[in-house]
Amino acid sequence: MKRRLPTVREDTHKCDSDVVVYLMVTATAVLSYVNSLNGDFVHDDIPAIVTNRDVTGGGLRQLFLDDFWGTPMVDPNSHKSYRPLTTLSFRCAVSLLLREHSLDRVRRNMEAREYDMTCKTLKIRGSAEN
């Protein structure tokens, strides 16, 4: 006597529910930190990022010879916390932020042109040419 195995049905809604879960997690993470993006550096951020010459643009070779705080590892006062990849990521973030300031002007110019074109299209006063 042969036993019949039950037919297996694929759950077609699983993919949709996974996407919703990922979107919810992403939204929660973004909403949790978005209010801190315009904040100042505090506590140990100042010596680790603001005044650290390895982060602000010293030599790349020196970055691998210094501790996390920018003090040479051979220095007796060194903290001996060697984290070159973290320091390198800070350096990349600082260079992107400096680049962002120049890109901000371009963005504002593009927004002004877009506003002007919208006003022209809708024939609203306030555009450069009516």
List the helices and strands and how they pair.
Blueprint: H1 14-33, H2 45-50, H3 53-56, H4 60-63, H5 84-122
InterPro entries: TMTC_O-mannosyltransferase
GO molecular function: mannosyltransferase activity
What do you see in this structure?
The chain is mainly α. The chain has a domain of about 60 residues. It has five helices and no strands. About 10% of the residues are buried. The mean pLDDT is about 80.
Features:
single chain; 130 residues; mainly alpha; 5 helices
In short:
The chain has helices at 14-33, 45-50, 53-56, 60-63, 84-122. The chain is built from five helices and no strands.
Mean pLDDT comes to: 78
Distance between the termini: 87 Å
Q: How is the main sheet built?
A: none
How many helix segments? Answer: 5
Structural class: mainly alpha
